[in-house]
Every structure is written in structure tokens, then in C-alpha cells.
DNA sequence: GGAGTCACG
DNA sequence: GACGTACGTGACTCCG
């Protein structure tokens, strides 16, 4: 059959499949002879998936896998350094390449590679021919270099995310249509492929320029018209290099290629060939699956070759997800069978389904369990049918155990110290169980494992992990609950659908655990996971469940007072403006100030709106002479904004967070929320309750201790500067901390040659800003803006600082250097923070460097307080005291009045000694304490 | 849903 | 000498 209209060609980027398979799987070897086969196994699995997936609308009629033939292509003649930076292939991957070709042929799929050309050129050429013949094309790849081919009957499919890449996605990535993608790439260059591009120009700027000038050629011709000198020079001086870059990134869609499209027609695989190959590779599971699908007997593996070649990890990554195989557990006998299975295994993945993301309010709807890849069940407990009307006639769905009965059967297992309970974000499920009297322990948590290994690389939600590491997109929760107004709670999901979704969650979690467990060790973060992540879960769960008492009346009174003041300010503001407008709209405010009142210097951002941040408004308030109206208006708006913030975010929203059952506010901490190891707090965020302004601080008066109790606050003094003094090994600073002198004053004294006893507050303030700046990866610009001084002056301060403390400069540059080499930085306790952008070019590099400088310091401080929190419960177990909140360097407790002194002593000891014995700081860690009826008084 | 703004360490 | 920049978060409001 000839290729023509109605035909749909799928072109698989073979290299992408191989690398994806290699990195997703542990280093497996063939049992009989030790041959490395992990990448081959994964490749076969992906290819088989591609052949068996039914995508109704876009099913291929023709199919081919395209490979790169070798490393030398025509591009090396144009530019010898092309792809010269590529790291050496891993030793165990190289020998697997040949097998991936063999596998492709065994699956009866055409396998194309041409010497001197990249796979991308072949894909470009075949795509063009297919289009000219009247057919359509889907390229299976996520490689951005292929995006220039998209459009006009050609699209891409990202095999990992199972996401189509069409015109919109290309535009999103490059800021231009596909036909201008090469122009953008030529300008931006590519550090991975070593395409030079123009120095200092990234994708964003490139797109901007191309869109403005239409094309690369006209841009280069008219480069002299570019207003920004840096950009102009980058283009003028590098025009040749840019043209070369374009030839490197442009794919050759017209290469000599002796492959007829009709030969790519989809063919059934030959069972003997494919099973013979899989059997020879000793892929047990895949052999069985393929045999099943082809409806033939699976060949038995030779006994002397070894029968069990697949480790748990491959099982996890390659066994199919069969939703119909999940069991619905509806009675005690069936649940007892699962309990027996769990006891035999020694571990189980657990997941709960509930009616709310707020664990303190959620009702339990069901529980799922998994004991091995593909073997999972769901226990429906609280599903309802029908609708709630006035009489609440919703019925309990049939065939469900009573919650109490199920929990009674599961409790001994969930609490058994010999049985490991595995979860994804176990804190959530542990709280759900704890509120029902079941105290789950011990636990493992796949989310925390991912965080320990891959902080900074990606998020750690289950869906993302499943896609990345299992190559599987789980059923989206939205497909069950809907979204927006029509969204229902999980108890309204029909049980048969819930089984498929919920059991899959447990299945995915178990598989991730099987994959991650050996990976933790390889990444050398086992200690981090075991000492800083896993033990924190029960501690945080208890703090969150304890909550903190918040006085509604206090908040409500404040709220009313704020509302009144705001109304007054609003009237005044509108009178000055001479017209009514929405004070809360930065856009309208900007127009009033800069257009109507003619304040000069209004700067519009990317969106075309004037910037009206607090710093800008503060500048305007100083224009009393030139623009008295605007100055007054700006001052009023600043006041209004402060009140508006306090009212909406604190006095109003906090009231809504008071739990009706406990009368307290229960935040939720995210362990993986910050890349540095800090916690984050949400719903509500209790880590940003106001304290800096007098008016805002009063919000803390609403956080109270119950009668007979007090709040105790303990916070580390200057912990980040102490850590800096230690890691950068600055003896003067260390000595200052040991002697307990004012560190900012000392810095000022050293820098400005002012004796300590003659220190002024202004000089000290400047030194303080510099000290903080250092922690953040200081820049002259940043310091200048912070201190509102000329940039040259700020730079002078920094120079003097580094002159005085040269060790700091060394520390900073060494940190950046090691991040560039390793791709991550580490805290003193071994936590890794990945820095994937550290070798980027353009402004991104600056961000990444500063983040890399800051991360070990902020992260070490985060580790210290985590260690203190983990030790705290045992240290205060005999006291009538509860740890309630953590605010990065502060812990807040509630304690019986008469035990407050004891608590302070104990908690202080734990906090000050938290680094030992793992790390011995050369400076003391000092904790300051306060107590009172309210948080305001305790701080 | 993104941008702007602002609360905290 | 000039690109544009302090590090890390979460919540609220506007507005397309």
C-alpha cells in the first residue's frame, strides 16, 4: 500500500527512549552472564507500550524508530566543538545500544539510522515526505530540537508526560511559532549541545528580538538599531557565530534517505522472533505480557539461566497497571486475607481517601493497600449514593464494611513495629488514622525519599513521580471529582471507580518505594532521609493536631477597627485623586499616580502596568514639594495597604481557620515545600504572622494560651550568621560569637574603623544589611537597593567587607564552583540541594549562583532546628507541655504555667545542642526565650 | 491562572 | 561598563 492521504506516521525518537529507560531503572544485569540490560528492558517496555496503546484518534498506520548512527555528523564540519561537551556515556549503557536496535527489529518495527546525520534530521526528512504525500505525522519525543517541525499536520507527543506538543506548546516554550524556533535557538544557543549562540542571550530575550525584527536575518542586518548596548554588541560582534549556530540547530529535511514511506507500514510482530529475543534477554515479565497479548504460550526460561531475573525494582517499573485486577474489599473475611498477606510480606503501602484535604476536618471514605507491584485493594467505608436534599436522604452505598470494624482489623497491623507502612505524604494519612485512635508506625514516605534525593530537580507529588519514574500517568483525581463548582467529594464517587483510582495510588506508592529504596543509598542521602526526614513526620503530625488557640473576638474587633480606618483612608484617597477608583487595584492606582497626577518616573513592567510596590510609593511620599497631592496619596495608600493586608490575610482569614471542634487553628506543614530543607506552613500560613510593624504585631495578641497555661517562644539567635562564620571559617566572626558581642556592630567596626563604643545606629544598620546580603549571595545592586544608596557606594562596602573577611569571598566562589561541577550543594548534615540552573547563561545564572551560596547556610539552619524538633518530644515527655509551631528559627510551646521554667531549660538544651554529635560548630548556638499569655508577649 | 503585592525568616 | 539581581516561602486581590 502506498503512503498517502489518511495515513498517519509515528516517528519514535529512539535515543530519547533509551536514555529515559536508562535513567528510570536501576542498573539491572542479565542473570546468566551479568550483561547490563536495564536500558534495554526499559526500552522494550516503552516500545511495547507504544505498540499496544490505543489512542483512538491518532492511531498510527505507519511507524518507525529512528536512532543516531554515531557521534560525528555534518554539523561537526560546520563547527568542530558541536556536542563536544557531551559527558562520556556511562560504561554500562554503551553495550546496550546494539540491543535496542535488535529489540526494535524483533518487535517488527523498522529501525532507521544514517551515518553522518542525526536522528532528528531523519525525522525531519520523513516528516516532510509524509506531509507531501498527504499524510500526517506524530513525533514521539520531548526533544525541543524537534519542535521546529511542529505544525501543518505534524505534532509531537511527549512520551513521559503523555502530552501532545502542538503549536501552543511550542510557542510556550520558545515564544515564537515553529518556523522561527531555529532563529531563537540560534540566538540563545544550547549549553548541552554546545551551540554557541549569542553571549548573554537566553530564550526569552531571543524570542523578544525575533518577534520585534521578524526574523534572524533581518535582526542581524538591523542589529545596530537595538537600544540595549549589551544586546547590540552581543549580536554585532557574534553575527558569524550566530549564523553558524543556526546551521547547527536547523534540521536537514532534505537529506538523502533511501527509505520508502510504504515500507514503514505497521506490521504485527512475529511471536517467535519477539519472544525469542525477550527470552534471550531474560525479561520474564515482559515475555509473559507479550505472550498474553499475542495469545501464545510464553516460553519457559531455561532453568540453568536462572528463573528470576527481574529485581523488585524492575517489576515496579515495568509491570503493567491493570486497574481491573484491583480488589474491592467488602467484608471482614476479605480484609483478614489482606492482613495475612501483609504479615507475610512485612510491609504494605497504605493510602486513605477522605472528603477533604484538611486532615482535621476530613471524614474517612476508604483505605487502599498494596503489597506488591500490581497487587492492591481498596476498602470502601464511607461512600454514599443519591443526593443530599433538605432531608439528607443520601444513602450509604451497599457492600461496605463499617469503619470501626475495618479499623479494628487493621489497627494491629498499622501499629505493629515489625511491619513497615509505606505512604506518599504519610503525614496526611497518619493524622487521619490518629484522629481515629490508630497510631501508624513505623512509616516510610516516598515523597520524602524523593525530596532527599531530588530537592531542586522536580516536585515530589505522586503524579509527577509516577510519570517520571514509572512512566505511568495515574488516573487524575479530577476525572472522578470534577472541578470547579460541580466538584464533588470522594464519598460521592461510585465504589467501582474509587477502587480503580484508590488502589492504583497504593500500587504506585509501593512501586515508587521499591525503586527509591536502593536509590537513596546510591545518592548517599540515606542518613539525611533517616535522620532529618522520616522521624519528622510524627513530630509534625502531633504539632498540627495540637493546633494553637486563637481568640476569635480579638480578631473580630481588630477586623472592625481596620475596616473603619480603611473606609476613612479610601475616602481621602479618592478625594485626592479627584475620582473614585479601586484602591486595591495596582493598575488603577498606577494610572492615577503617573497619568492623572503626572508623577514622573513611572515604570511599566512586562504587562504594561505601572509598578506601584511599597518601595515606589515610599519614594513618592518624599515628593512633597513637587507633587504634594501625589505624596499625600501615596502615603495614604501605603497605610491602606497595610490595613488591607492585615484584615484580609490575618484578622479575617484566620477566623475562618478556627476548627469548630477544637476551637484552635491547625496549620499544615509541608516538609518538601522549600528546596533548602526549610518547612513551609499553609492553610493557614502561621510562619508569616506579622511582627515587624507595631500595628501588625498586635495580631499576635490573638494567639493565646488556655487558662493556666502560657506560650513559650524559643528562637535561635543569628543562626545563619553563626553558620556562615563556621563554614567560611572566619575566625574574627567566630570569636565575636564566642564572646557574645553584637555581631553587626563588630562588622561595622571592622569595616568602617569605628571603635565599638563609638558605634552609631546608622553605621550598624549598614553593616547589618551587608551581613544579611552576604547570606543571600550579595550584589552591589541588591545592597544599593536595600540601603537606598548609590550603587558605587554599595559596591565599595562589599569590597571593603571582602577585604576585611577574605574567607567569605573564598567560601562563596568555592561553593559556586563545586555546584557547577557536581550539580548540587550540601548542608553540613549532608542534605543535597540540586542546582540544575547553575550552568545556565544569562540572568538565570546569577539567580542560580546566589541560590547556591544561600542554600547551604539556610539549609544547615533548617537541619539544625529539624534535629531539635525530632529530639524534643522525648526531652519534654514528662512535662505538661506541647510543641505547637515552628517558624524557621523559632519553636513555640504551650505549657502549664508552673512548668514553664523547666520547659525553657530543657528545650533550650535540646536546641542549643541540636547539631551535636554530627557536627561540632566552632561557634556556640544560642537560644533566646520568652513567655507570656499571648504570642505577642512571648516573643 | 498569572501578576502584583506583602507578610514572615 | 552594563545586562537585571538580593535568599527562601504562602495568601490575597485584581483582571483578562
UniProtKB/TrEMBL annotation:
Tell me the Pfam families matching this sequence.
5_3_exonuc, 5_3_exonuc_N, DNA_pol_A, DNA_pol_A_exo1
Keyword DNA-binding set for record = yes
Extract the CDD domains matched here.
Answer: DNA_pol_A_pol_I_C, DNA_polA_I_Ecoli_like_exo, H3TH_53EXO, PIN_53EXO
Q: Where is the DNA-directed DNA polymerase family A palm domain?
A: 696-899
PROSITE patterns to which the protein is assigned, alphabetical? DNA_POLYMERASE_A
Q: Tell me which UniProt keywords the record has, alphabetically.
A: DNA damage, DNA repair, DNA replication, DNA-binding, DNA-directed DNA polymerase, Exonuclease, Hydrolase, Nuclease, Nucleotidyltransferase, Transferase
Q: Where is the 3'-5' exonuclease domain?
A: 326-521
Q: Does the keyword Aminoacyl-tRNA synthetase apply?
A: no
What biological-process GO terms show up in the record?
DNA-templated DNA replication; double-strand break repair
Which residues are in the 5'-3' exonuclease domain?
A: 4-267
Q: What reaction gets catalysed by this protein?
A: DNA(n) + a 2'-deoxyribonucleoside 5'-triphosphate = DNA(n+1) + diphosphate
Q: Which GO terms describe its molecular function?
A: 3'-5' exonuclease activity; 5'-3' exonuclease activity; DNA binding; DNA-directed DNA polymerase activity
State the oligomer form and interacting partners. Answer: Single-chain monomer with multiple functions.
Protein task = In addition to polymerase activity, this DNA polymerase exhibits 3'-5' and 5'-3' exonuclease activity.
The entry assigns this protein to a family as follows:
Belongs to the DNA polymerase type-A family.
Please state what the protein is called. Answer: DNA polymerase I
Native species: Paragemmobacter straminiformis
Source taxonomy: Bacteria, Pseudomonadati, Pseudomonadota, Alphaproteobacteria, Rhodobacterales
Amino acid at each position: 500500500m502506498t503512503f498517502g492521504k489518511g495515513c498517519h506516521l509515528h516517528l519514535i525518537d529512539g535515543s530519547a527512549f533509551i536514555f529515559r529507560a536508562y535513567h528510570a531503572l536501576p542498573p539491572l544485569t542479565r542473570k546468566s552472564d551479568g550483561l547490563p540490560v536495564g536500558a534495554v528492558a526499559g526500552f522494550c517496555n516503552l516500545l511495547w507500550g507504544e505498540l499496544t496503546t490505543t489512542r483512538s484518534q491518532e492511531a498510527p498506520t505507519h511507524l518507525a524508530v529512528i536512532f543516531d548512527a554515531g557521534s560525528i555528523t555534518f554539523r561537526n564540519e560546520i563547527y568542530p566543538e558541536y556536542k563536544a561537551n557531551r559527558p562520556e556515556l556511562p560504561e554500562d549503557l554503551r553495550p546496550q545500544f546494539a540491543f535496542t536496535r535488535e529489540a526494535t527489529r524483533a518487535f517488527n518495527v523498522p529501525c532507521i539510522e544514517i551515518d553522518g546525520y542525526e536522528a532528528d534530521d531523519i525525522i525531519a526528512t520523513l516528516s516532510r515526505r509524509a506531509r507531501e504525500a498527504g499524510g500526517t505525522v506524530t513525533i514521539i519525543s520531548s526533544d525541543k530540537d524537534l519542535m521546529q517541525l511542529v505544525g501543518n499536520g505534524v505534532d509531537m507527543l511527549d512520551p513521559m508526560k503523555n502530552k501532545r506538543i502542538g503549536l501552543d506548546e511550542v510557542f510556550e516554550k520558545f515564544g515564537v511559532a515553529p518556523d522561527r524556533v531555529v532563529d531563537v535557538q540560534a540566538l540563545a544557543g544550547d549549553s548541552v549541545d554546545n551551540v554557541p549562540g549569542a553571549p548573554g542571550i537566553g530564550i526569552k530575550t531571543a524570542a523578544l528580538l525575533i518577534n520585534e525584527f521578524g526574523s534572524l536575518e533581518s535582526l542581524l542586518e538591523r542589529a545596530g538599531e537595538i537600544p540595549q548596548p549589551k544586546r547590540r554588541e552581543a549580536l554585532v560582534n557574534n553575527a558569524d557565530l550566530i549564523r553558524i549556530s543556526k546551521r547547527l540547530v536547523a534540521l536537514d529535511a532534505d537529506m538523502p534517505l533511501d527509505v520508502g514511506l510504504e515500507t514503514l507500514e505497521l506490521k504485527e510482530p512475529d511471536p517467535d522472533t519477539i519472544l525469542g529475543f525477550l527470552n534471550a534477554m531474560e525479561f520474564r515479565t515482559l515475555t509473559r505480557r507479550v505472550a498474553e497479548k499475542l495469545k501464545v504460550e510464553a516460553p519457559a526460561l531455561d532453568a540453568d539461566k536462572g528463573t528470576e531475573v527481574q529485581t523488585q525494582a524492575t517489576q515496579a517499573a515495568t509491570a503493567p497497571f491493570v486497574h481491573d485486577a484491583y480488589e474491592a474489599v467488602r467484608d471482614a473475611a476479605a480484609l483478614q486475607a489482606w492482613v495475612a498477606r501483609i504479615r507475610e510480606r512485612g510491609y504494605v503501602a497504605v493510602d486513605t481517601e477522605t472528603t477533604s484535604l484538611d486532615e482535621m476536618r476530613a471524614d474517612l471514605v476508604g483505605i487502599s493497600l498494596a503489597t506488591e507491584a500490581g497487587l492492591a485493594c481498596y476498602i470502601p467505608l464511607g461512600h454514599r449514593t443519591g443526593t443530599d436534599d433538605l432531608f439528607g436522604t443520601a444513602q450509604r452505598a451497599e457492600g461496605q464494611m463499617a469503619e470501626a470494624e475495618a479499623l479494628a482489623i487493621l489497627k494491629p497491623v498499622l501499629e505493629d513495629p515489625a511491619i513497615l507502612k509505606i505512604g506518599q505524604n504519610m503525614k496526611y494519612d497518619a493524622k487521619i488514622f490518629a484522629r481515629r485512635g490508630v497510631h501508624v508506625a513505623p512509616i516510610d514516605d516516598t515523597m520524602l525519599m524523593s525530596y532527599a534525593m531530588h530537592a531542586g530537580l522536580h516536585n515530589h507529588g505522586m503524579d509527577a513521580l509516577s510519570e517520571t519514574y514509572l512512566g505511568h500517568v495515574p488516573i487524575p483525581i479530577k476525572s472522578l471529582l470534577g472541578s470547579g463548582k460541580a466538584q464533588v467529594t470522594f464519598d460521592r464517587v461510585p465504589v467501582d471507580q474509587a477502587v480503580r483510582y484508590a488502589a492504583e495510588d497504593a500500587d504506585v506508592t509501593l512501586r515508587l518505594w521499591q525503586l527509591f529504596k536502593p536509590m537513596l543509598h546510591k545518592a548517599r542521602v540515606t542518613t539525611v532521609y533517616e535522620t532529618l526526614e522520616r522521624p519528622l513526620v510524627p513530630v509534625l503530625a502531633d504539632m498540627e493536631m495540637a493546633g494553637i488557640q486563637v481568640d476569635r473576638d480579638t480578631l473580630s474587633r481588630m477586623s472592625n477597627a481596620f475596616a473603619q480606618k480603611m473606609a476613612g483612608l479610601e475616602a481621602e484617597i479618592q478625594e485626592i485623586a479627584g475620582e473614585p477608583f479601586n484602591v486595591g487595584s495596582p493598575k488603577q492606582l498606577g494610572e492615577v499616580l503617573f497619568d492623572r497626577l503626572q508623577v514622573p518616573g513611572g515604570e511599566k513592567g512586562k504587562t504594561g502596568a505601572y509598578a506601584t510596590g511599597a518601595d515606589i510609593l515610599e519614594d513618592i511620599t518624599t515628593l512633597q514639594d513637587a507633587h504634594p497631592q501625589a505624596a499625600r496619596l501615596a502615603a495614604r495608600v501605603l497605610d491602606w495597604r497595610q490595613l488591607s493586608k492585615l484584615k484580609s490575610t490575618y484578622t479575617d482569614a484566620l477566623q475562618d481557620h478556627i476548627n469548630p471542634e477544637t476551637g484552635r487553628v491547625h496549620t499544615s506543614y509541608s516538609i518538601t515545600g522549600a528546596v533548602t530543607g526549610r518547612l513551609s506552613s499553609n492553610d493557614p500560613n502561621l510562619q508569616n504572622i506579622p511582627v515587624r510593624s507595631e500595628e501588625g504585631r498586635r495580631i499576635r495578641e490573638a494567639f493565646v494560651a488556655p487558662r493556666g497555661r502560657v506560650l513559650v517562644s524559643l528562637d535561635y539567635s543569628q543562626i545563619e550568621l553563626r553558620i556562615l562564620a563556621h563554614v567560611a571559617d572566619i575566625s574574627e566572626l567566630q570569636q565575636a560569637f564566642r564572646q557574645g558581642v553584637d555581631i553587626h556592630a563588630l562588622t561595622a567596626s571592622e569595616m568602617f574603623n569605628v571603635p565599638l563604643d563609638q558605634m552609631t545606629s546608622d553605621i550598624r544598620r549598614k553593616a547589618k544589611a551587608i551581613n544579611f546580603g552576604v547570606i543571600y549571595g550579595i550584589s552591589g545592586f541588591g545592597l544599593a537597593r536595600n540601603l537606598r544608596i548609590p550603587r558605587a557606594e554599595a559596591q565599595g562596602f562589599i569590597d571593603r567587607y571582602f577585604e576585611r573577611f577574605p574567607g567569605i569571598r573564598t567560601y562563596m566562589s568555592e561553593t559556586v564552583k563545586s555546584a557547577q561541577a557536581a550539580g548540587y550543594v550540601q548542608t553540613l548534615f549532608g542534605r543535597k540541594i540540586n542546582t540544575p540552573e547553575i550552568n545556565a547563561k544569562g540572568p538565570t545564572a546569577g539567580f542560580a549562583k546566589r541560590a547556591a551560596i544561600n542554600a547551604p547556610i539556610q539549609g544547615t539552619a533548617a537541619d539544625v532546628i529539624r534535629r531539635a524538633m525530632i529530639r524534643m518530644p522525648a526531652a519534654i515527655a514528662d512535662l505538661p507541655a506541647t510543641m505547637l509551631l515552628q517558624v524557621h528559627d523559632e519553636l513555640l510551646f504551650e505549657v502549664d504555667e508552673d512548668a514553664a521554667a523547666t520547659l525553657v531549660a530543657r528545650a533550650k538544651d535540646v536546641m542549643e545542642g541540636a547539631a551535636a554529635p554530627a557536627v561540632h560548630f566552632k561557634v556556640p548556638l544560642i537560644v533566646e526565650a520568652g513567655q507570656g499569655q499571648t504570642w505577642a508577649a512571648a516573643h
